[in-house]
Amino acid sequence: MKTTAVIAAMPVELEGILTQLGAQEKKVTGFYRLYEASFCGSRVIFACCGIGKVNAAACTQRLIDYCQPDAIINMGIAGGISAELSTLDVVIGSEVVYHDFSPISLLENNYPFAGSFVCDKALIELAKQVCAGSLAPGSFRVGRIASGDCFVEAGEVRTRIRDLLGGLCCEMEGAAIGQVSHANGVPFLILRSISDLADENAQMSYEEFESKASLQANRIVTGLLSAIAQGV
User: Fold this and answer.
1) For tag attachment on the chain, is the N or C end more exposed, with fewer CB atoms within 10 Å?
2) What is the pLDDT of residue 136?
3) Active-site residue among 13, 89, 95, 173?
4) Do 75 and 221 meet the contact criterion of CB atoms below 8 Å apart?
5) DSSP characters over 35-102
6) Is residue 162 part of a domain?
7) Residue 98: which of 84, 114, 86, 87 has the closest Cα?
8) Residue 157: which domain range?
9) Interval 183-193 mean pLDDT
10) What stretches of 135-198 show up as alpha helix (H) in DSSP?
């Protein structure tokens, strides 16, 4: 039986999909919140890791040790950086990079000898198929996602992500999850729904669209889990 691990930072990012799939909470030492469901003949483990890179990395390694997943999906919300994005659009990560690690050459020249972490191509293609079949044309993009331990509200950080890193959106966990998955040889995908545009109005937009963007990500990941289980 295939096992897919799904990680989200906050409870709100998991609530909808847990209810839909009838997931049951499990009490396992070392996890903040952990749930399990059977879906389309496969096993799905959901973990709420908490906000930020350290929480995300620790949870990812614990999940790999605990359930030895065939794939890891990190879903949730993000701030849009690209001018092409609007709230509730979806970004499928082609790769993830830290926007608060400088210079990035330190990672490239030392372990893990990589400045970015590439998402699994097969998972990307499945996610594209799900998005194309369930979202309005033009409402999803594939590209680089940038992670860092800060809430981006315009300014120098946003400029760095856009101009120097080529990031489509920003969040706080994906690169850490990607790095741990990469180190363990586990295929992974980072998927985000846009809750704000990382500008001066980011906080107000985030509060308005947090729940809606989370449900959007849930919907895409449910379709992705179905495709994975069926070997589409």
Assistant:
1) N
2) 85
3) 13
4) yes
5) EEEEETTEEEEEEE--SSHHHHHHHHHHHHHHH--SEEEEEEEEEE-STT--TT-EEEEEEEEESS-S
6) yes
7) 114
8) 3-226
9) 98
10) 155-159, 174-184
Tell me if residue 13 is catalytic: yes
Query: What percentage of the chain's residues is helix, strand, coil (to nearest 5)?
Result: 40, 30, 30
Place of tokens 């180190």: 183
Catalytic residue among 25, 156, 196, 207: 196
Average pLDDT, stretch 174-190?
98
Instruction: Please check whether residue 232 lies inside any domain of the structure.
Output: no
Angle, helices 174-184 vs 53-67, to 10°: value is 30
Q: At what angle do helices 202-230 and 121-134 cross, to 10 degrees?
A: 110
Predicted confidence band of residue 9 (pLDDT cuts 50, 70, 90): very high
Asked, for residue 38, whether it belongs to a domain, the answer is yes
Q: Is 163 a catalytic residue?
A: no
Residue 120 belongs to a domain: yes
How many structural domains compose the chain? 1
We report the CATH number of the domain holding residue 61 as: 3.40.50.1580
Residues 6+ positions from 195 with CB-CB distance below 8 Å: 77, 78, 79, 87, 205, 206, 209, 210, 212, 213, 214
Instruction: Please enumerate in sequence order all residues whose Cβ is within 8 A of that of 188, keeping only pairs 6 or more positions apart, or say none.
Output: 71, 72, 73, 74, 117, 119, 120, 123, 177, 178, 181, 182
The predicted model scores a pTM of 0.94
